[in-house]
């Protein structure tokens, strides 16, 4: 993503005044400040940079009532799953928990978005700056909003930026993020979901590939054999990024930092940690997330006392889907291939307890086929 | 049968004038300069101001040099 010069970040296209929906609003109607004051410093007293966060009801709600009604349940606004998983791992001691909470607020909560930070400006988490000089973007531009934040994993996978791994087949068909991740999904639907994988209108492969289990579908036999037993990504994803041991704190100047110990490319099939009626598969792809027992150590010792309550190898839907992958070339490209499966030896000793529920024992690896 | 009532041209003229008059209050607002718009649509002005800010506040916190790895 090309960085913006300071003046580019705040330049407004005069064409904005012609916007039939928003151009008639005075700047101060949304941002506050005093438009009649020639001194810019005095004019900016009381100015709100993003009038859509944390509450969009004033700025957007008058016209976009239905969308704003659900705003407080959009995962991009609340980051609820982050809070939930940190709460599960956090110490039950209220004093320690409070410190973990404060650190989470300071470090993790910067990564939220808002109406404005998708449709008008780049997200603040990537230093903001107006998109198209304040001309409202009905569909947020992929490079400057979606992958500006979802860069390390999703962007690199989807655009084929990981060495030796091609771009996602959907990218080759010119699909942008919004093709699968609809506005309805992004805006929230009024339900507070514990995880993005449980969002009702989240993407499902079968929404488009509804024919794969029918006579009209290619490889119907294989698809039916694996239906509800193996997630689509197990056969159709490629190796993806896994990060380890992220720690964060403040440097000597008080600036916040994070440090990730390592990042490796790997492809690991494991047991589904989120088995449900909607997601019944036994085997799924797992990605290692950068959490560590000492992630909050700078702020408090023993912050994640209940670290082992959740696996660090987490259900993943890699964004580098291919029709043909090394593991789907033939039955025995996967069956009997222990190396594809997450085994105890693949898990760092300090994370073994946390991952007991997702590790595939040798006896559980599907045996080689005799044909 | 009831005859259609003919519109008095004078009344019609007065009505048009009244409509015009009600539009007038918008004009004084247009006379008053909106400095947000004037300034934020002027790249030169914005460059001057942002350079000025940089000069007076050069130590705006950025990313810590200790940040390492992928987020």
Brief synopsis:
With 371 residues, chain A is an alpha+beta fold. Chain A has helices at 6-10, 27-31, 40-43, 65-69, 75-78, 80-89, 94-107, 116-119, 142-149, 151-158, 169-172, 177-180, 183-187, 205-208, 220-226, 232-236, and strands at 240-250, 256-266, 268-271, 283-288, 313-315. Chain A has a domain at 1-78 and 113-149.
Description:
The complex is a heterodimer of chains A (371) and B (71). Chain A has a domain at 1-78 and 113-149. Helices cover 26% and strands 9% of the residues of chain A. Chain A has helices at 6-10, 27-31, 40-43, 65-69, 75-78, 80-89, 94-107, 116-119, 142-149, 151-158, 169-172, 177-180, 183-187, 205-208, 220-226, 232-236; strands at 240-250, 256-266, 268-271, 283-288, 313-315. In chain A, helix 9 (142-149) packs across helix 10 (151-158). The radius of gyration of chain A is 23 Å and the shape is globular. By secondary structure, chain B is an all-alpha fold. Chain B has a domain at 32-57. Helix content of chain B is 58%, strand content 0%. Chain B is built from four helices and no strands. Chain B is elongated and about 85 Å long. The interface between A and B is medium-sized, with 39 and 27 residues.
